[in-house]
Write a structure and sequence with these properties.
The complex is a heterodimer. By secondary structure, chain A is of the alpha+beta class. In chain A, about 35% of the residues lie in helices and about 35% in strands. In chain B, about 35% of the residues are buried. The chains are: A alpha+beta, B mainly alpha.
Chain lengths: ~180, ~625
């Protein structure tokens, strides 16, 4: 092989491997500046997280006091292959939530995440919850299920957990859990 | 070549030991589940906010054992560290796990905490601390992390320049199927670092042929083949180099480099016709890619070597055109970046909806600033800088939204005040009157209850006389008083009659006493239901009354403080964004200028080659006499 070819080849490999080529040319001062900036960014993240926590408490106190708070959560039955498209909730006949799921949200639910779909206020006492679920089974066919539940609101915040399952899973399509 | 393994090592760990939130078999705490829901979508700020709040609440409880988070507390502490790391908060990451490590937990949990802490410290490049954390593992190690612990240990050895020890550990891990590709690849790198090149080649050869199912395993297999192919190529073993490079998938992230090198492997063995196969595939790919641009020169070089100068001249002409176009694009990119459009493009909301947003940005029409983004993204530090910028933009949006939210809270509080303040004095006055009546009745009920309780041990039949009986008793007493002690016969007869009446009354009270006492208790118990209902109503009213006040009183100071904090934070974020943005632009321009220089060099090379090829083609066409 010609010497020139070998040099060209070696150069090509070096260039291919040097994906951080431009970056590597930064001087130390630039690297230090970048590091310093990164630390400042981390500090502001920490501060803003602290604010977010305080703001969230304030919001809860102001908008959803424990005496009237009701929160509804959605989870998927473990390992269920159904594709959840939408959930609609009515409390005492009033539509309170109608949620259409993105791919990322569906994946998060499939991995075991729990979505707080609704938080609102109701008076203490007995209430009716209607849940409508739209989705697709593994084969692609549409399905739709509606269930009615009764729940009682006490003085403490009411947490309602709904676990959804496809019609082919053998699980209850919409199971209510209370916390 | 020595740098390559260390750089490539990152993938082996990042994918093999990707931090995953720790959740038990059954989720019992909905808010922990909500934090996971956000984390699984990459929304680490929201995940941290939720989990921080949950943990703060849990720690403030008198009896945390009764809280639903108690079932997940270790997983929650572990997850905080993972979320912080994913949110690039390295300084904070690990604090929560250290708390678990120092707490009174059982051996398995402590060992898992030590492992997770070591993993965080490894990713923070605190290698000695990471080894120290691993050294704390002793006794029972949860089965699901046993191999992960050893894999991490091997990676730390590799990163600290102890490849021989890494080899020993990795040899033991060969049987773990879930880590198979990563172990095989890292073992090859460890052998290479240990100076055992031949064994490294054999090991990478095995790693490059392992069955792979998921995306990560396929990627590490491709990388094994790419590194192996490059090593064999440098060792001038072109045939084997080509075999390894041919195993790299055509659609994977390493395919461009593999195609380029496969072509060079063929060319080095003077198989120019075969070299054209991968190079021609490459030449039709995304023209901003370094390997593609290299192939644009390599293809005509092969034709020239095959003595097809006419075709070579044509292809050099195409290369020349491409380099000219790309130089224009780089210039446009640099110009656009200087005008600030690069940063604007990065923060477009619609462009960050999925994980391929960087790739899609490149093809945005009329956005020259993003053409070479993929190239820039190849650098980890640039990615960090870019992610920081995007995080700052997110923080900025949040802070602006909060400022609006705080204004809305002010409005809510003002309106609630306007609604309640005229109503409450009247309500309070009515309540005070009602309250005194209720308290009186409660006192009476208590008195009755106490009396009945006392009568169980000291019977008092007269207390259970009916109203008629009490009147009758009073009248008998009056008659007896009027009769006095007179000895007159009429009086005696009347006293006897009065005594009989009193006796009859006493008889009735005494004989009916048990039934009457029982009935009295029953009536009192019936009263209890009413008293309880009244108490509930009373408590409900008190709560509602308190809630009315709490709904608008006492928030001003907190809201004002939050508003000030948000304002200060916004100023800091703006300043940081400007500095971070300037840094990104500077580095991007530096890199693009370097890229431009390279394109200009390639353009010059192509220009000379075109001329040379045309000369050669002319000579061939002119025949032997023309030479």
């Amino acid at each position: 092989m010609a010497r020139r070819d070998r040099i060209t080849i070696t150069l090509a490999i070096v260039l291919c491997l040097g994906s951080a080529y431009g970056w590597a040319q930064q001087d130390d001062q630039q690297q230090q500046q970048m590091k310093g900036l990164d630390e400042e960014v981390q500090a502001i993240k920490s501060d803003v997280l602290g604010m977010a926590e305080e703001l969230s408490r304030l919001e809860e106190k102001l908008l959803f006091p424990s005496g009237t708070q009701v929160a509804v959560f959605i989870a998927l039955a473990k390992g269920d292959p159904m594709r959840l498209d939408a959930v609609r909730l009515q409390i005492d006949g009033q539509l309170v939530a109608h949620y259409i799921y993105s791919f990322k949200e569906l994946e998060a639910l499939r991995k075991g995440g729990v979505q707080r779909i609704y938080v609102g206020n109701v008076t203490t006492g007995d209430h009716q919850l209607e849940v409508l679920v739209d989705g697709k089974v593994e084969g692609g066919a549409d399905f739709s299920r509606t269930e009615h539940f009764a729940f009682r609101k006490e003085v403490k915040p009411k947490l309602v957990g709904l676990t959804l399952a496809g019609p082919e899973s053998g699980n209850t399509p919409i199971a209510l859990g209370e916390w | 070549m020595l740098r390559a393994p260390h750089r490539l090592l990152g993938l082996g760990l990042a994918v093999g030991l990707a931090a995953r939130p720790a959740v038990g078999a059954e989720l019992r705490d909905l808010y922990f589940g909500e934090a996971l829901y956000h984390a699984y979508q990459g929304q680490y700020f929201d995940a941290l906010q939720r989990l921080d709040a949950e943990l703060a609440q849990y720690r403030g409880l008198d009896e945390p054992g009764l809280d639903t988070l108690h079932y997940h507390i270790n997983g929650a502490e572990f997850s905080v560290g993972d979320f912080e790391l994913n949110y690039r908060m390295h300084q904070r990451a690990g604090r929560a796990i250290k708390a678990v490590l120092e707490g009174a937990v059982d051996e398995a949990v402590r060992n898992e905490a030590a492992f997770r802490l070591a993993r965080i410290q490894f990713q923070k490049d605190q290698l000695d601390d990471a080894l120290h954390a691993l050294a704390r593992i002793e006794g029972t190690v949860p089965g699901e992390i046993q191999d992960d612990v050893e894999f991490l240990r091997a990676n730390i050895y590799l990163a600290t320049g102890r490849p021989a020890e890494a080899v020993t550990v990795l040899e033991e891990l060969r049987s773990d199927e879930s880590l198979a590709g990563f172990v095989a690849y890292n073992l090859g790198i460890a052998l290479l670092q240990d100076g055992r090149s031949q064994e490294a080649i054999e090991q990478l050869d095995q790693a490059g042929q392992l069955p792979a199912g998921d995306h990560a395993a396929l990627a590490i297999r491709d990388k094994s083949n790419l590194v192996l192919g490059s090593m064999l190529f440098e060792a001038a073993d072109f045939e084997r180099a080509k075999q390894a490079l041919d195993r790299v998938r055509l659609e994977g992230p390493f395919s461009n480099q593999a195609l380029l090198r496969a072509g060079w492997a063929e060319a080095s063995a003077a198989q120019y016709d075969r070299a054209l196969v991968p190079w021609n595939i490459l030449a039709d790919r995304e023209p901003t890619d370094v390997a593609v641009q290299e192939a644009m020169l390599a293809v005509p070089h092969a034709y020239a070597s095959l003595n097809v100068p006419g075709r070579a001249a044509l292809m050099y002409g195409r290369a020349l055109e491409l380099f000219s176009n790309q130089i224009e694009r780089v210039d446009a990119s640099i110009g656009s970046i200087r005008e600030g459009r690069f940063l604007d493009a990065l923060i477009r909301e619609e462009s960050r909806q999925d994980q391929d947003w960087v790739i899609r940005l490149r093809s945005l029409p009329d956005a020259p600033e993003t053409y070479y983004l993929m190239e820039l993204m190849a650098s980890h530090d640039f990615q960090t800088a870019l992610q920081n910028y995007l995080d700052l933009e997110d923080l900025r949006s949040k802070l602006l939204a909060w400022s609006t939210g705080l204004d809305a809270f002010d409005d809510i509080i003002r309106l609630r005040g306007q609604n309640y303040e005229p109503l409450l004095p009247e309500v309070d006055a009515q309540f005070r009157e009602l309250d005194s009546r209720i308290r009186l009745r409660f006192e009476q009920r208590k008195h009755l209850g106490d009396r009945l309780q006392a009568m169980l041990t000291a019977p008092r039949p007269e207390y259970l006389a009916t109203a008629d009986e009490q009147i009758a008793g009073a009248r008998i007493a009056l008659i007896e008083q009027q009769l006095g002690d007179s000895d007159r016969p009429a009086s005696l007869a009347l006293r006897q009659r009065a005594a009989r009446l009193r006796g009859a009354l006493t008889w009735r009270l005494e004989t009916e006493y048990p039934e009457r006492l029982t009935a009295a208790h029953e009536h009192l118990n019936e009263l209890n239901a009413h008293v309880e209902a009244l108490t509930r109503q009373y408590d409900s009213f008190v709560r509602t009354r308190q809630a009315a006040t709490h709904s608008y009183v006492g928030y001003e100071a907190q809201i004002e403080r939050l508003r000030e904090r948000a304002g200060d934070a916004l100023e800091r974020v703006d300043s940081l964004m400007a500095r971070q943005g300037h840094m990104i632009e500077t580095v991007a321009i530096q890199q693009l200028e370097a890229r431009r220089e390279r394109l200009v060099a390639q353009q010059t090379q192509a220009r000379y080659a075109v001329a040379d090829s045309y000369d050669r083609a002319s000579r061939v066409q002119a025949g032997p006499e023309g030479r």
